[in-house]
Amino acid sequence: MEQRELVIVGAGPAGMTAAIYGRRAGLDVLLLERGLTGGQVNLTEEIENWPGAPRVSGADLGNAFRDHALSLEAEIRVAEVKKVELRGEVKAIVTDKGEVEAEAVILAMGAVYRSLGCVGEEERVGRGVSYCAVCDGPLYEGEEIAVVGGGNSAVEEAVYLTGFASKVYLVHRRDEFRADRAAVSRALSNPKIVPVWDSVVEKIDGDGVVEKILIKNVKTGKLSSLPVTGVFIFVGQAPANGAFKDLVKATEEGWVLTDENMETSVEGIFAAGDARFKRLRQIVTAAADGAAAAMGASAYIKEQLHLRSALLEPESVTAFFYSGADADQARLTDEAEKIAREKGRDLLIIDGYKNARMTRKLGVSPPSVIELRKGAVVRATPVASAADVAKTLG
Ligand SMILES: Cc1cc2nc3c(=O)[nH]c(=O)nc-3n(C[C@H](O)[C@H](O)[C@H](O)COP(=O)(O)OP(=O)(O)OC[C@H]3O[C@@H](n4cnc5c(N)ncnc54)[C@H](O)[C@@H]3O)c2cc1C
After folding, report:
1. Catalytic: 118?
2. Which of 53, 92, 173, 270 gives a 20 to 30 Å CA spacing to 29?
3. Local structure of residue 302 (DSSP, 8 states)
């Protein structure tokens, strides 16, 4: 089977930044993308918040990310990942074009915005229809716009958009918002916000761009029109993680949980970008996550390779396993090293906390001195003091 060091799922800003950092760290990188490279960036006409480029088209930025990754010889392959499986130490990535094994995987498959599905919406995305207030709000300075939805995102983003727009219609299909009380009271006390209750959007209309929306009152059936130049839709966002649902820990909604190094609940599997549980889903945060995930993956891979060659491959090894999370054990390592030096013994020092997987695999409970022959433990001696270490090393 094809074997790679780092496989990245998804070539959006997160995945492509991870590929750039991964290649610069010297890793062999394969980036798998089921569609166009660029991800959601392709849905954005113009981006105004990518640092250093006051105005750049989504397509140009996506292409620049891709060209940068390719210039560093990352491989980008068109393939849809169906699932990732753990096979012992190895991660197997099952795609519609075959299977690949990897030392580490970065999940960067992004998110999808739920659309209304009404007439005129799809063809006006980026031309007045938006799913992102931070991205597009400044384009509506002094204009009248509509926000659709009744949850926290809709209500909070409506308030945010009053910083630009002269009037914000907040269109909701029920007669009260689902958002929390504080957010609702902030919105309803804002003179620029006009709630439009019990209403759904039937049609988004205009000559190429948005000029008005047609709304229907669900109680009376009455149709009316609102003259707006922008429609912000917040009826939900979902992670595109169908293929990884049961692999790593995630929130109830499916957002992947990671630590600050972007590592998931499974060692060697990282997540970056919109697929993660986080507050701000933007290009710049996706790129930052991608960089952190690649550096985390690089450290993990190098550590695994080092451990394998230092611990499992030699004829015979003596190692001191300690837990780096325990100050007393960390102090004992200095003494263990000194004793080994005095006795002329080679002693490998392994942080069992950082290398939990290997520690579990060998059945070691730190602090212990372990003797291995060709990767198999032949003696494991628990040690609590320098005297114990000295006695064990003979
Ligand atoms: C209309 C719109 C406008 C926006 N405007 C801005 C803006 O102005 N500024 C800003 O900062 N942010 C903006 N955003 C948000 C920004 O685009 C996202 O935060 C960013 O693209 C997230 O990057 P990502 O790499 O995490 O995910 P994505 O961009 O979603 O990329 C994920 C990639 O993974 C691929 N993928 C998913 N599943 C699989 C699988 N199973 N196998 C293989 N490939 C897979 C997808 O095809 C996709 O290419 C906007 C978003 C939208 C929708």
Report:
1. no
2. 53
3. H
Catalytic annotation present for 135: yes
Nearest CA to ligand 1 atom 4: 44
Sign of CA dihedral 281, 283, 285, 288: positive
pLDDT by residue (tens digit) across 204-252?
999 999 999 999 999 999 999 999 999 999 998 888 877 787 899 999 9
* Single-letter amino acid, residue 240: A
* 270-317 pLDDT per residue, tens: 999 999 999 889 999 999 999 999 999 999 999 888 888 999 899 999
Ligand 1 atom index nearest CA of 48? 8
Relative orientation angle of helices 386-393 and 327-342, to the nearest 10 degrees: 40
Q: Decide if 143 contacts 230 (C-beta within 8 A).
A: yes
Helices (H), 7-100: 13-24, 58-71
The alpha helices in the chain, defined as continuous H runs, are 13-24, 58-71, 133-136, 152-161, 181-188, 283-307, 327-342, 356-362, 386-393
Q: Which long-range contacts (CB under 8 A, 24 or more apart) does 191-194 make?
A: 192/162, 192/165, 192/166, 192/167, 192/168, 193/158, 193/159, 193/162, 193/168, 194/167, 194/168, 194/169, 194/170
State in Å: Cα 339 to ligand 1 middle: 55
Best residue among 93, 94, 135, 247 to mutate for probing ligand 1, ranked by most atoms within 8 Å of CB: 135
- For residue 132, indicate whether it is catalytic: yes
* Cβ pair 105, 270 in contact under 8 A: yes
Angstrom CA distances, 197 to 38, 115, 119, stand at 37, 19, 20
